[in-house]
Design goal:
- It is a single chain.
- The protein is mainly α.
- It folds into three domains: 57 residues, Orthogonal Bundle (Arc Repressor Mutant, subunit A), CATH 1.10.10; 134 residues, Tetracycline Repressor, domain 2 (Orthogonal Bundle); 28 residues, no CATH class.
- It contains twelve helices and no strands.
- Helix 10 runs antiparallel to helix 11.
- The radius of gyration is 28 Å and the shape is elongated.
- The protein starts with a helix and ends with a helix.
Length: 236
């Protein structure tokens, strides 16, 4: 029986949740930089090995759900079909990130405030955002592979989706999580869809056909004409 299953049977919170709760209890009291992993595990009532079983670093305990969310987004994009509007699909994928934040507004607001105060966490968050953007761009690159400037289109649209999502998300977080986060982010993503969605993409790049003009004297045997064509095409 796993440790989390055993704790669930006893009514205790899973170790992972206990570590997150302990960390967010200590950060406001002592400050992020002053709080150590030893402090967190002591309050959670577990050992250091338990901490590093769930979180590679102290930064990771600040963002405990991003790995799961990134996996969900990647799976959602992979499950799409060729009939899906690719721009709508990546916008819907971004809504999965919003759902993660909206599941626990109080926690999300607390993390937002903490991240604003700690430069190292802002840098870490940027690296997380870049991974989301890369997942969106890779999906779009696959959909636009045969299109002229397909890679450019994919990267621009992915960046636009992330920018629209994050702009609306930060607005919601600054309001202390008040209001309808889905409506706020949906309004921002509508701009992306209106700009890029449903617009016919440039045609696939076609290879130019070879045109060969051969001048031959009247009455020349056919084999001679064919030989001259093959020679011109470099096949002789």
């Amino acid at each position: 029986m796993s440790s989390e299953k055993a704790e669930a049977d006893t009514g205790k919170p899973p170790i992972r949740d206990a570590l997150v709760a302990a960390a967010y209890e200590l950060f406001p009291e002592r400050g992020y930089e002053q709080t150590t992993v030893d402090d967190i595990v002591a309050l959670a009532g577990v050992g250091r090995r338990s901490f590093f079983r769930y979180f590679p670093s102290k930064e990771d305990v600040v963002f405990p759900d991003h790995e799961r969310c990134l996996a969900d987004m990647t799976a959602f994009l992979a499950d799409g079909s060729d009939d899906d509007d690719p721009v709508r699909r990546v916008c819907d994928a971004a809504r999965l990130v919003l759902r993660m934040y909206a599941e626990n507004p109080a926690f999300s607001v607390q993390r937002y405030r903490l991240t604003k105060q700690v430069p190292g966490l802002r840098a870490y968050e940027l690296s997380v955002v870049w991974r989301y953007e890369r997942a969106l761009a890779e999906y779009l690159r696959g959909r636009f592979a045969a299109r002229r400037d397909g890679t450019l289109q994919a990267d621009v649209i992915a960046a636009a989706v992330v920018a629209a999502h994050n702009n609306a998300l930060r607005s919601w977080l600054r309001s202390d999580g008040q209001g309808d986060a889905g409506a706020t982010v949906g309004h921002a993503l509508d701009y992306v869809q209106s700009a890029f969605g449903g617009v016919p993409l440039p045609p696939a790049v076609e290879q130019p056909e070879d045109v060969v003009v051969v001048v031959s004297r009247r009455g020349a045997p056919l084999w001679r004409v064919v030989q001259e064509i093959e020679t011109t095409l470099g096949r002789g």
